[in-house]
Amino acid sequence: MAQTPLQPLSVGNVVSAAFRLYRDRLKTYVGVAIRATLWSLFAVVLIGVLCAIVIPIFLNVFETQSAAFAISALILIPLGLFILFYCGAKSLLNLALISKLAFGMLIDRPESSKEARKPLQSKLWRFFFVNFLVTILLFIANLSLSLVQSALLGVFQLFLSELMLGIFTLLVAIASMVAYSYVSSRLLIPEVPLAVEDNLGVTNAIGRSWDLSKGFAWRILGIFLVAFLISLPLYVIAALPFILSALRFVSEASSWASGTPSPTILLNILTTFGTSLLLLFAMNIFLLPFWQALKAVVYYDLRIRKEGLDLQLRDSQI
Amino acid sequence: MRLFNRITLLTPESVELEFTLAGIGNRALALTIDYLIWYLFLAIVLVFTAFLLDTLDLSLALLPGGTSNPELWIFAIMGLIFFFVYIGYFVFFETLWHGQTPGKKRSKIRVIRDDGKPIGLQQATLRSLLRPVDDFLFIGAFMIMLEKRERRVGDWIAGTLVVQEEEAVTAAEFLVSDTARDLADRLWQAADLSGLSPDDFAAIREYLRRRSTLFPDAKKQIARQLTQKAKSAIALERIPKGVTADRFLEAVYLAYQKRE
After folding, report:
1. Best of A9, A13, A216, A235 to disrupt the B interface by mutation (most B CBs within 10 Å)?
2. Mean pLDDT in chain A?
3. Quick one: DSSP state of residue A7?
């Protein structure tokens, strides 16, 4: 008999479960997260290298600088976009893979990352387009809310006193944020059904995220809030050297007004700053799997509530 | 996989009690709620202090042979009150509500001693006094996440654990139709309900409890699945005509309960 609690999970338990999954398979998940990050880095590096190669060539060939830059742009922009999209897709695939592995653990059908990755390769571009479409949808939501906000303020400022207007602006801003949060929470997990279920198209995957989250948007937001709270310690620890170096910089800067800064102190501050950036980068690699595992647990919990996944699984075990 | 830590405690009477540890998520949620309420109380104390400092030092200075530094007295007294609220919020609630604070109540978790007994004043005070250590650089959070029994420094020193409340298996709150009751009586006569395992019964019960949130397609499929299973388990040849899967399952549920 399965040891997962086959029932809907409370907000706190979803987060604890995600953390537990993350902790138990840390090495595997971080390995996949590194691959995801490397793909993103690779895109940036490749584009940089290409620019460094192409632009000087054309600068030599053409007489005018503007012509050289124009031709370079003509070649580099489409190429660059393709590289960004391809590497982005690879990166997103790896992130979704973590969610798929986590979900497998939840339904007691664990897989190795190699096995789980295979069926995902054919869906590579779908991962990209899902992300792209969600970004556009969120952008539209944001835009609409801003327009409504401006319209409301424009109308009400005609007959409200300054104080009331200030309060009204604040309330409208809060309402706007709440509405946006609601929409984001409904569109949060499309890559999980895309990775886990078969034969899902781009719009279907987004539709799954939307349908499954119906009636549970605030719960999802609560879950992510609690998860953010427990990831805070890691972010703070990583940022600590940065904060210290920033403080140091501020205290030293006052003495520079009188004279030139000492190179040793400057170097010191820069190294601490650099260390902090590296730490933040490393922390991000460590935290990405946690967020993906969380999405998997949210998906699992929603399927239990909406589709009785636990009842179906229970049936197949006995 | 085992998602939550379960521990078994041996009480002084050699009784084994099994609990599920609270988990970092629940504790973080409880802490957030508690801190918000706690800060509210502390803010009230501070505002009150400011108010006192504004109004009272005038009158105190007028007292015959009055103190030269009424502000210091006010600081001292309010400082003491602040300290008491600081420590007292958690001590008060955890002692009075047997290990729960408003936040913990919301997350359905509870502080208990590590021998299973409810916590007393001593443990609650120790936990509260050590709270600043746990808050410093999130030491407490790390300990909860990494330690085997999810204890922070306060728990470790005070000998307490934080566990999830066991949900009492109450009478399920779902409506059962009258047709189901009649059907249950007929089933009771016609079929052998001892063939239904407790697991199957639990599955039917869960379905009946949660069917309102299920997607319609999924609901139909699961109802069908469960009906088939129940039918073969209780050796019923056919389901009576005009009886939907839902009604049938309700009837089986009622009939099974009658066995007890």
Report:
1. A13
2. 86
3. S
